[in-house]
Design a protein that fits this description.
The complex is a heterotrimer of chains A (258), B (280) and C (264). Chain B is 34% helix and 22% strand. With 280 residues, chain B is α/β, with parallel strands linked by helices. A 10-stranded mixed sheet of chain B has the order 5-4-1-2-10-9-3-8-7-6, sandwiched between helices. Chain B is globular. Chain C has 264 residues and is mainly α. Chain C folds into 2 domains: 1-49; 52-263, MetI-like (MetI-like fold, Orthogonal Bundle). Chain C has helices at residues 18-45, 52-65, 69-99, 101-116, 123-130, 134-159, 162-170, 175-212, 218-227, 231-263. The chains are: A mainly alpha (258), B alpha/beta (280), C mainly alpha (264). Chains A and C meet through helix 2, helix 5, helix 6, helix 7 and helix 9 of A and helix 1, helix 4, helix 5, helix 8 and helix 9 of C.
Chain lengths: 258, 280, 264
C-alpha cells in the first residue's frame, strides 16, 4: 500500500472502486451500442433499456407478473424451509438415514431438477404446482444439509453443560440447541432462498405463461429486445436486493447470537 | 523441613463418607465400536470432606475428567459408585455443579441470563433467581457487567461467569475441570486469586482438576495425585499452608516444598505415560 | 474437522465399519425399490406416466439404435467447453481475489450478488450474440459455473495457512512457484470442491439451456419428446440425465477423496 495523498486514498476505497467499475462498464456499453459496434438486435444502449423498464413498471401486467413470481418464490421457499429443517434434524439425529440418502441428495443437487417438470405435470396438472414443487426441491436441499451441519457444529461443551444442570430434552432443545445452532444454519437458509428465486425464475422462463421469468423469454421470442433487457434488469435488481437484504439479516443474526 | 505426610485414600479412613463426597472403588472402562476396551480408571477411592478444596493432578489423559464426569452424574462408572452425603449418585443433581475448561457461556444470553441458566432450568421463580444471580455476580467481581454479552468479555471474565453460574446453584460440591486451562498465564493467576477469595467467602467442597502444580498447591487443602491409565490415586498430599491463604503464599518455602514433592511424583507418572507411547 | 479424517459427500467424518457399509447399500437399494414401486403405481393411476419396462427398453434402444449419441455428444461438448472457460477465468480470478484482501473487499459483494441472479435470464442475450447452438449453451455453462468456482477458489486460497506463505516468501519463491508448490497443494481440497461443483453446474446449465432453445442435446431430446408426447422416450432421457449426474459426481468425489488422503 503506497503512502498517498488523501485523494489517492479515496480511490482505493473498495466501494468507490466497485461503483466506478460498474459505471465504466455501463458507460462503455452505452458508447459501444450507440456507436454501432453492437447491433440493436443484440443489445440496445443501456439508456434505451432503462426507458423500456420505465414504461413497463407502471403497467398492470407487470404487477400481475411480479405478484405471481413473488408468490411462487414465497411458496417455494416456505415449503423448502418447512420440510428442509425437519429433514436436516432427522439427518442429524439418525445419521444412518443421512448416509443412506446421501447419493440421492447429491444427485438431486447435481442435476437439472427442471427435467422432472413433465412428470410433475402429469401428476399435478397444469397449474403452479409443478413449478413450486421443483423450486421448493431446489431450496430444500441446501436448507436440510445446512441444518444438519449446523446442529453438528454446536459446541459439545454446551451439551455437557445442559446435562450437568439436568436439562430435560425439551429444555435442552429450546434453551440451548436451537439458539446455538441458528446462527450456524442461517447461511443455508439464505442459500435456500436464493435457490428458490433461481428455481422459480428458471422454471417460469421455460415453462410458464405468466411471471417475470416468463416475460423475459416471451420478449425474446417476440423480438422485443429492449423489453427483454428491461426484464433482465428487473430480475437482476430483485435478486441482488433480496440477496443484500438477506445478507444484512444474516450478519445481524450472527452478530447477536454467535 | 519435615515433608508433609502422605497417605493413600480409602473410603473409610481419613474422612467421613457420610458428610462429604465419597468415592467407593470407582472403575471406568470405555468400550468403543471397534470393541477395544480402554480402562480409564482402575480403582479410585477417597473422601472429600465438607468444605475441603481438593485438587487432582496427573499426567495428560489419565482420566481426571472422567472422574469428574462420574461425580457430576454425567457418566455411570462401570465399577463402584459415588455417594454424596451417603446418597448414591445416579445422575446430575442439585448437589453438584460443574465448571468446564472450554468456554461454556451461552453466547446469545447476557451475563445475568447466563448465570441464572441452571436456576431457570430448575424452574426457580424469576425474581428469586435474578436476585441470587446478582449477588453471585457481585461476588465473582463482575458487578456492572450483568447486561453484557459473552463476546464482550475476556476469557477470564467468561470463566468467572461459568463459576458464578455454578455457585448460584448453591451446590454441595463444585466440580471444576481445568477451568483455567484455556487462559493465559497472567489471567490464570488473577482468576486463581479471585477463586481463592470467592472460596473463602463460600467455603464449598471443591474437586478441582488441573495440570498446573502451583495452582493446585496454592488453592487446595489436599492434592490427589492420579497415576497414568488405568488410573488410581497414587498419593494424597495434604497442603498445610493455612487458611485463609493469600496469593503470595507462592513465595513461601513451604510452598516450594509442596510443589517439589508433587513435581517428583508427577514426573514418575509422566515418564511412565511417555514410555507407553502417545496417550490417545 | 481435521483434514486427516475422511469425509463423505455430506461432509461427515467417516467411521468405517464393514457391516455398516452393507447396511447403507441395502438401504439405498431399498430406496430405489420404493421409487420404482411408486413409479409403477403412478403408471396405473395416470396415462401420462409410461411403464417402467417400456422406458428402460427405450433407453437401451437409444444406445443400440444410436439416436442418443449425437445429442449426448452435443451436451457433453457444451458442458466441457463451458466448464473450461469458467475454469480458465474462475480459478485465476479466485486466486487473485483470495490472495489480495483489497481485491476481496472490492469484488466480494459483486460476486455474491452475481451468484444470486438466476443466470438463465441471460440466456436470451447469449442467444442473440451466438445464435442457437452449442456456443450459446457453452457460454451459459460458463457464466453459471464461473461464480461457484471463483467463490470456492477464493475461499480455499484464503484458508491457506499464512505461515506457509511466509515460508515460501522467505525461500524467495517466484510467484509461479508459490502458486504451484504452496497455494495449489494447500488449497487442493477446496479447489477440488470448486471443480466438482463447477462441473455439476455446467451440466445443469447446459440441459436447461437446451430445454429452451437448442439444435441438439439431451435437454432438447426431453423437451421434444415432451412436445410430441413420446413419453417413454422422455422419461428414458430424464433417467439418463440423472444417471450421468450421479456418475459424474461420484467419480469426481472419489477423485477428491483420493486427493484429500494424499494431501492430509
Amino acid at each position: 500500500m503506497s503512502q498517498t495523498v488523501a485523494l489517492g486514498q479515496v480511490w482505493r476505497r473498495p466501494r468507490v472502486v466497485r461503483w466506478t467499475l460498474i459505471a465504466i462498464l455501463v458507460a462503455g456499453l452505452e458508447a459501444v451500442t450507440r456507436g454501432g459496434l453492437i447491433g440493436p438486435l443484440t443489445a440496445p444502449p443501456p439508456s434505451v433499456m432503462v426507458a423500456a423498464l420505465a414504461r413497463i413498471v407502471g403497467t398492470a401486467q407487470f404487477a400481475d407478473d411480479l405478484g405471481r413470481t413473488a408468490f411462487t418464490i414465497g411458496a417455494a421457499f416456505g415449503i423448502g424451509f418447512l420440510l428442509g429443517v425437519p429433514l436436516g434434524v432427522l439427518f442429524w439425529r439418525v445419521p444412518v438415514v443421512a448416509r443412506v440418502l446421501e447419493p440421492f441428495v447429491v444427485t438431486l443437487y447435481a442435476m437439472p431438477t427442471l427435467v422432472f417438470y413433465p412428470i410433475l405435470l402429469a401428476l399435478m396438472g397444469l397449474n403452479a404446482g409443478p413449478i413450486i414443487t421443483i423450486a421448493a426441491l431446489m431450496a430444500l436441499i441446501p436448507i436440510a444439509l445446512n441444518t444438519m451441519v449446523a446442529l453438528r457444529g454446536v459446541n459439545p461443551v454446551l451439551h455437557k453443560l445442559a446435562a450437568s444442570v439436568n436439562c430435560s430434552r425439551p429444555q435442552y432443545y429450546r434453551k440451548v440447541l436451537v439458539p446455538a445452532a441458528t446462527p450456524l444454519a442461517i447461511p443455508g437458509v439464505k442459500l435456500g432462498f436464493i435457490y428458490a428465486i433461481i428455481g422459480t425464475i428458471a422454471m417460469e422462463f421455460i415453462l410458464a405463461s405468466r411471471g417475470i421469468g416468463f416475460r423475459a423469454g416471451f420478449n425474446y421470442r417476440d423480438f422485443n429486445i429492449p423489453e427483454m433487457y428491461a426484464y433482465v434488469l428487473v430480475v437482476v435488481f430483485l435478486s441482488v436486493s433480496i440477496n443484500y437484504a438477506l445478507g444484512a439479516l444474516e450478519r445481524r443474526i450472527r452478530r447477536d447470537m454467535l | 523441613m519435615a515433608e508433609p505426610a502422605s497417605r493413600l485414600p480409602s473410603a473409610d479412613g481419613g474422612g467421613d463418607p457420610a458428610r462429604g463426597v465419597a468415592f467407593h472403588s470407582i472403575g471406568m472402562t470405555f468400550r468403543s465400536e471397534r470393541a477395544e476396551a480402554t480402562q480409564a480408571i482402575a480403582d479410585v477411592s477417597g473422601v472429600i470432606d465438607e468444605g475441603r478444596f481438593v485438587s487432582v493432578i496427573g499426567p495428560s489423559g489419565c482420566g481426571k475428567s472422567t472422574l469428574l464426569d462420574i461425580v457430576g452424574g454425567l457418566l455411570e462408572p462401570t465399577d463402584g459408585y459415588v455417594t454424596i452425603l451417603g446418597e448414591r449418585v445416579t445422575g446430575p443433581r442439585r448437589d453438584t455443579a460443574m465448571v468446564f475448561q472450554e468456554d461454556s457461556t451461552l453466547h446469545w444470553r447476557t451475563v445475568l441470563e447466563n448465570v441464572v441458566f441452571g436456576l431457570e432450568v430448575a424452574k426457580v421463580d424469576k425474581t428469586e433467581r435474578e436476585a441470587r444471580a446478582r449477588d453471585i455476580i457481585k461476588l465473582v467481581g463482575l458487578a456492572g457487567f450483568e447486561g453484557h454479552h459473552p463476546r464482550q468479555l475476556s476469557g477470564g471474565m467468561k470463566q468467572r461467569v461459568a463459576i458464578a453460574r455454578a455457585l448460584v446453584m448453591d451446590p454441595r460440591i463444585l466440580l471444576m475441570d481445568e477451568p483455567f486451562g484455556a487462559l493465559d498465564q497472567q489471567t490464570r493467576m488473577f482468576v486463581g486469586a479471585e477463586l481463592l477469595r470467592i472460596w473463602e467467602k463460600t467455603r464449598k467442597s471443591v474437586l478441582f482438576i488441573t495440570h498446573d502444580i502451583q495452582e493446585a498447591v496454592a488453592l487446595s487443602d489436599e492434592v490427589w495425585v492420579m497415576s497414568h491409565r488405568p488410573a488410581v490415586i497414587k498419593d494424597v498430599i495434604p497442603i498445610n499452608l493455612g487458611r485463609p491463604r493469600s496469593p503470595d503464599v507462592i513465595e513461601s518455602p513451604e510452598f516450594q516444598t509442596h510443589t517439589n514433592r508433587l513435581w517428583e511424583l508427577l514426573k514418575v507418572e509422566a515418564d511412565k505415560t511417555l514410555g507407553v507411547g502417545a496417550v490417545g | 474437522m481435521s483434514a486427516a479424517v475422511e469425509t463423505d459427500l455430506l461432509g461427515r467424518a467417516e467411521t468405517q465399519t464393514p457391516d455398516r457399509n452393507y447396511l447403507y447399500t441395502l438401504g439405498r437399494l431399498g430406496v430405489i425399490a420404493i421409487l420404482v414401486a411408486a413409479w409403477t403405481l403412478a403408471t396405473r393411476v395416470t396415462d401420462l406416466v409410461p411403464a417402467v419396462n417400456e422406458t428402460v427398453t427405450t433407453l437401451a434402444d437409444g444406445f443400440v439404435a444410436g439416436w442418443v449419441y449425437p445429442h449426448l455428444v452435443s451436451t457433453v461438448r457444451a458442458v466441457i467447453g463451458g466448464f473450461l472457460v469458467a475454469s480458465l477465468i474462475g480459478f485465476p480470478a479466485g486466486f487473485l481475489i483470495g490472495r489480495s484482501h483489497w481485491l476481496g473487499q472490492v469484488f466480494d459483494p459483486l460476486v455474491s450478488g452475481a451468484f444470486a441472479v438466476p443466470r438463465i435470464i441471460f440466456f436470451p442475450i447469449l442467444l442473440r450474440i451466438f445464435g442457437v447452438g452449442e456456443s450459446a449453451e457453452a457460454a451459459m455453462a460458463a457464466i453459471s459455473a464461473l461464480f461457484p468456482i471463483l467463490i470456492t477458489t477464493a475461499a480455499g486460497v484464503r484458508e491457506v495457512n499464512p505461515t506457509l506463505v511466509k515460508m515460501g516468501k522467505s525461500l524467495n519463491l517466484s510467484t509461479w512457484q508459490m502458486v504451484g508448490k504452496i497455494y495449489v497443494p494447500a488449497a487442493a481440497p477446496s479447489l477440488m470442491v470448486g471443480f466438482r461443483i463447477g462441473f455439476s453446474i455446467s451440466f445443469i446449465a447446459v440441459i436447461i439451456a437446451e430445454f429452451f432453445a437448442a439444435k441438439a442435446g439431451l435437454g432438447l431430446l426431453v423437451s421434444r419428446a415432451y412436445g410430441l408426447l413420446q413419453l417413454p422416450r422422455m422419461y428414458a432421457v430424464v433417467i439418463l440425465i440423472v444417471l450421468i449426474a450421479l456418475a459424474g459426481n461420484l467419480t469426481l468425489w472419489l477423485f477428491e477423496r483420493r486427493l484429500r488422503a494424499h494431501v492430509a
